[in-house]
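Review form for a predicted model. The reviewer records the input and the model, then writes brief findings.
Reviewer: anonymous (R2)
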Amino acid sequence: RELAAGPDPAQIAGILDGADALIAKALSLVATILDVDELEDGILRASPSQVELAPMVQAARVNSRADSELRELTFELDMAPGLTVAVDRDLMTRVLENLVDNAVRYAPRRGRVAVAARTEDDVLELTVGNDGPPVPVAEREAIFGRYHQVEARRASARANRGLGLYFCRLAVEAHGGTIRVEPRGPLCA
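Model under review:
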């Protein structure tokens, strides 16, 4: 009589990692919903400190890993090793999570997602993109509005509530910055 083999520890670890990522996404979504009003009212403000950017990008990448793997995406990162910037760690981590999640969600199957960062005169320029279809010109400003969704994406079963990019705009503005959509970044041509 043959005994059935026990569960594969690597498979269990993968499932637990995926569950952990989904829980982190859910908590981030709840925090976004709660923080939007406080950011609008100026109650929640950025509290910048010097932080290394790469671990924040890595966290965003891990949170989108399941979708990235399912869609067979390539992830490209272009930033100086050890790049540190003065940002609010929590707010900027959530901005990165939202931007990377959107880039992954709308990248074509077997496509690319790219993140690039550089600083000049203590100003951070962060680019997140993919090689999917560009956002229509008419929607490039509106995409960062509350509850806005690109019309073609509204019908998608994966459509969200339209708060993620609005949160990003508010969080970036709380840092004194701006956010915009461009047709293609240098890594996503």
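Findings: The first strand starts at residue 49 and ends at 52.
Further findings: Residues 137 and 175 are 26 Å apart (CA to CA).
Recommendation: see findings above.
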